[in-house]
């Protein structure tokens, strides 16, 4: 299918992941990368199946599909709020082919889910959620809007993660744990107890280190 797609983001490996996945879903055509925040862009970016252009301003509604190509939660929120696009379902999900999502789980819009990730039954994932490689998410879990989950995390069943929170790579979140919003869990943490809003926490067991922001 030939489409006219807008990627809002920057040109690091996230763009490559997005393009590879569009190819496997037979979506090819014109890609425009909108970089209105002047983020660092790979200037020599090329792909055999796409005509790629980079722009710092575009007419948004001329594009059939939009992809939010950003991992940082606060940046994702800032971009969609600045563009006044919070409810716009033109944002598509980019989900790698080998991701395993239970048919009983739900995913919002504007999400990225990278390879070798699995999402078990009855789990709800919000909008603009980014889940990187090799992440396991258990059953009956709630992941709220703008959350980012870095590679290699295991998130057990009946857990919840608040809006705008980042889970650092390789972290383990035990069953029934609730993590608040706008919180950062440092890489390699083992989270055994609830963690509140607006903190940076890490370690095994995970402890609050400081306020976030
Ligand atoms: C939690 C985090 C955001 C803290 O960043 P920061 O505030 O800039 O922390 P610093 O790098 O200044 O480190 C401060 C101290 O905490 C320690 N520290 C930082 N993160 C730690 C972690 N996750 N576990 C244990 N100790 C940690 C550092 O070793 C340093 O100790 P020192 O003062 O004895 O040298 C960051 O360390 C982290 O874990 N980010 C997630 C990274 C990630 O997942 N990347 C994936 C990319 S795809």
Structure description:
The chain is mainly beta and 213 residues long. It has 2 domains: 2-69, no CATH class; 94-211, UDP N-Acetylglucosamine Acyltransferase, domain 1 (3 Solenoid), CATH 2.160.10. The protein has helices at residues 13-24, 73-82; strands at residues 2-9, 28-34, 50-55, 65-69, 94-95, 100-101, 106-107, 112-113, 118-119, 124-125, 130-131, 136-137, 142-143, 148-149, 154-155, 160-161, 166-167, 172-173, 178-179, 184-185, 190-191, 199-202, 207-211. An 8-stranded mixed β-sheet has the order 5-8-11-14-17-20-22-23, with helices on one face. A 6-stranded parallel β-sheet has the order 6-9-12-15-18-21, with no helix packed on it. A hairpin with a 4-residue loop joins β22 (199-202) and β23 (207-211). The protein is globular. The N and C termini lie far apart (44 Å). The mean pLDDT is 88. Bound molecules: coenzyme A (COA).
Topology, number of strands: 23
Unreliable runs: none
Distance between the termini: 44 Å
What value does the Rg take, in angstroms?
A: 17 Å
Structural class: mainly beta
Mean pLDDT: 88
Find the CATH superfamily of the largest domain: Hexapeptide repeat proteins
* Number of alpha- plus pi-helical segments: 2
The level-1 CATH class of the largest domain: Mainly Beta
Q: Topology as H/E string? A: EHEEEHEEEEEEEEEEEEEEEEEEE
Overall tally of structural domains: 2
CATH architecture of the largest domain: 3 Solenoid
Bound molecules: coenzyme A
The assembly state of the depicted protein chains is: single chain
């Amino acid at each position: 299918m030939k489409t006219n797609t807008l990627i809002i983001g920057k040109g690091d490996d996230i763009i490559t992941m997005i393009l590879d996945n569009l190819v496997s879903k037979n979506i090819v055509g014109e890609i425009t990368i909108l970089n209105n925040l002047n983020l660092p862009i790979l200037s020599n970016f090329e792909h055999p199946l796409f005509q790629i252009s980079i722009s710092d301003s575009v007419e948004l509604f001329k594009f059939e599909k939009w992809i939010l190509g950003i991992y940082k939660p606060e940046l994702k929120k800032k971009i969609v709020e600045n563009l006044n696009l919070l409810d716009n379902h033109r944002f598509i999900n980019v989900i790698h082919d080998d991701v395993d999502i239970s048919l009983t789980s739900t995913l919002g819009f504007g999400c990225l889910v990278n390879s070798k990730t699995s999402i078990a039954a009855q789990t709800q994932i919000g909008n603009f959620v980014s889940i990187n490689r090799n992440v396991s998410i258990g059953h009956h879990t709630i992941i709220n809007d703008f959350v980012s989950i870095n590679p290699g995390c295991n998130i057990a069943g009946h857990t919840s993660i608040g809006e705008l929170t980042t889970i650092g790579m390789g972290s383990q979140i035990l069953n029934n744990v609730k993590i608040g919003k706008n919180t950062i869990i440092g890489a390699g943490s083992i989270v055994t107890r609830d963690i509140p809003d607006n903190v940076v926490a890490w370690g095994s067991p995970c402890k609050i280190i400081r306020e976030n922001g």
